[in-house]
Design brief:
Length: 398
């Protein structure tokens, strides 16, 4: 009898689980791939040479120039974007070329980001990066690819702006999309927002791990770094997170905190930055998985330098009915000065305007801290300890 009851419960739970998957649209992509579709036509806009020759790129973008690379009328879903350009990143900063996407005839973008960070290339660097919806592939991360579904009902437009101060000599791209008479029910609009902030240490200093002063708790999320803030109904689906740390101290004690549907206090609170990104114990190694990873890690002293981590909430979106504010501490209780940037990705039931984008000056790259800077720090420390000739570096009570 117990076996029969257990089997009935197993079947019941399985049916409930399948029903939930069907309702939330989280069923398996490979399962969906086998289903026959009707009324869908493949379309493409690309930089192909209209003469049939081999100059398959747009003519040079001058500094300050804006150019619409794709303008689509009607109803459909963008399902694939690929971009590459020249010159290479050491000469042309991907951090100063802006990509914007406009849905349904709106005059405001619902996607706005430097093109490098959007596709998983932090700063002005290039490196191979692999995730389920986004990738930067060979050669050396210069092939930028998106597989995010981007629905629209009344047209779509993709714009590129060159803020680099240098000429984009060649710009290659594909924009593939499905054309259809009507979107499936409840299709949201894709959004992506880039934010950047040079965070501020506490008045008492950078007290991480209690090395230089007492640490205090943070229960309200005040002064947290904000990576998404929007009003409306939708669900958060991912983040690329870029950290430039000016100290050898571990930067990742900060917890993620989520304020959903107008909450004054966060209802979702994490246990550390590395934990939020599904890693552990202050890692410094490259790792890639479809849903999370670290394609670029600092290789300097301690945790000094640049790190890029990502997480996509493919099977576990964060839902909101009226608003969401996603934040993360910069060090425990926001005690560290860090150069932080992020691109958040989400869907809403309608295309909405984004918060103001950081300016070129605000997102300017910070220089690397090196051994010369450390020696100057040591010199200042020696003098603060009386400049005794045998000071080693570990003395704390003198």
């Amino acid at each position: 009898m117990k076996k029969i009851s257990f089997l009935f419960l197993f079947i019941l739970l399985g049916n409930v689980y399948s029903s939930v998957l069907a309702q939330t649209g989280l069923d398996n992509d490979l399962f969906n791939l086998a289903q026959m579709k009707s009324g869908i036509k493949n379309k493409r806009i690309s930089s192909t040479d209209p003469t049939g020759g081999n100059r398959d790129h747009l003519e040079p973008f001058k500094p300050g120039e804006k150019r619409t690379i794709a303008e689509i009328k009607g109803t459909g879903v963008i399902n694939h974007i690929w971009i590459t350009m020249s010159p290479t990143p050491d000469q042309l900063s991907r951090n100063d070329i802006i990509i914007r996407m406009y849905w349904d005839g709106n005059d405001y973008p619902s996607v706005e980001s430097p093109i490098g960070p959007f596709f998983g290339q932090g700063w002005n660097e290039s490196y191979n990066y692999s995730s389920m919806p986004l990738a930067a592939g060979p050669k050396e991360g210069t092939g930028l690819t998106s597989y995010f579904a981007m629905p629209f009902e009344k047209g779509a437009r993709i714009e590129i702006e060159n803020q680099s101060g240098k000429t984009i000599k060649a710009f290659y791209f594909y924009v593939d999309y499905f054309e259809m008479k009507k979107l499936p029910k409840d299709m949201g609009r894709f959004h992506a927002w880039y934010n950047h902030n040079l965070t501020e240490a506490l008045p008492e200093g950078e007290t991480e791990w209690g090395l230089t002063g007492k640490q205090h708790p943070n229960s309200t999320g005040e002064r947290n770094y904000v990576f998404i803030e929007t009003k409306g109904k939708g669900h958060f689906v991912g983040i690329n997170y870029y950290i430039h740390c000016p100290t050898p101290m571990w930067y990742g004690e900060g917890d993620d905190m989520w304020f959903i549907d107008g909450e004054e206090l966060p209802s979702l609170i994490g246990t550390g930055t590395e934990d939020f990104f599904n890693t552990s114990w202050c890692p410094k190694e490259k790792f890639s998985f479809p849903y999370f990873g670290a394609p670029r890690v600092n290789d300097d002293h301690g945790w000094l330098g640049r790190t890029h981590v990502y997480r996509f909430f493919i099977s576990d979106p964060i839902f909101f009915e009226s608003s969401v504010k996603g934040t993360i501490e910069h060090g425990s209780n926001n005690n560290l000065t860090l150069d932080l940037a992020s691109v958040a990705y989400w869907y809403q039931d309608s295309a909405v305007a984004l918060p103001a984008a950081p300016t070129k000056e605000q997102r300017a790259l910070k220089p690397f801290i090196n051994y010369k800077d450390m020696h100057r720090w040591r010199d200042a420390w020696r003098k603060s300890k009386g400049n005794e000739p045998t000071l080693w570096g570990h003395e704390t009570n003198k």
